[in-house]
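Question: Hello, beginner here. Any chance you could explain the protein record under this note? Any guidance would be welcome.
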Amino acid sequence: MTKHNIDISIVIPLLNEAESLPELFGWIQNSLEGHSYEVIFVDDGSKDDSWNIIEQLKTKHEKLIKAIKFRRNYGKSAALNEGFKLAEGKVVFTMDADLQDSPEELPEMYEMVTAQGYDLVSGYKKKRYDPLSKTIPTKLYNWATRKMSGIYLHDFNCGLKAYKNEVVKSIEVYGEMHRYIPVIAKRAGFDKIGEKVVQHRARKYGVTKFGLSRFIYGPLDLLSILFISKFGKRPMHVFGVWGLVMFAISFLIVGWMVIDKIFINTSARLIADRTEFFIALTTMIIGFQLFLAGFLGELISRSSSERNAYLIEKTI
């Protein structure tokens, strides 16, 4: 097992949050007295003075700060993925830079991971200070995610989360998938997932960086995660099954038409002139296409460099 010399790593993705950063860092310092920690700022293509502020903080607190600056805006998932690569702490936290997440929650969440054995602890903003245009879609989104993933968290989208270091080192986050890290972690075998009610504060500076588009792209990413995690290494198991179903429907329809023509309604019109014939033909074509998709998926899967990449917990 990897030995970690730092208790806590805090990965903070940010976009145009220059006003918040000095106050946020001071708040973290006050909240983590007695713990060894590092703060990893990931500037996701800010156009304001954010990077200059980070450089100033780095000059004053050389050993406490790491920082990455993207040349352009790649999104929160990309920022977290790069931050996770640098994290050395025993417990890795993510939090937003807008002062809506409280660093005062970190020590208790740290204890939940280290003392209670959770792989992941997600914050739950039970009392929110967001407009209805944000809170109502969020409730619907969380309900749908719970039903689809089987993970019963109240607030998947809360930016304040704590992870064992091996969790963040074992997953890859891209697209809009930062909202589904608990789902990705569970599919990777880290299934002890907890939740803690956390403070939520009204935004003090700037404006929110997330629009309603996340409620369109988010569910699509969830479907991708669920499908790939279940069938990524065996695509024929899903395409082949549905291909067989389509073939079975086709053969049943054709068989019925033959029996009907020969034994029941001998004076009926030709089989090729009946509507059922074209339904059978269509289902057969769909079945063939599904089988073809399955074969292509198997070829791609077997040629992947990660085809035999498995997470090994222990070796003795």
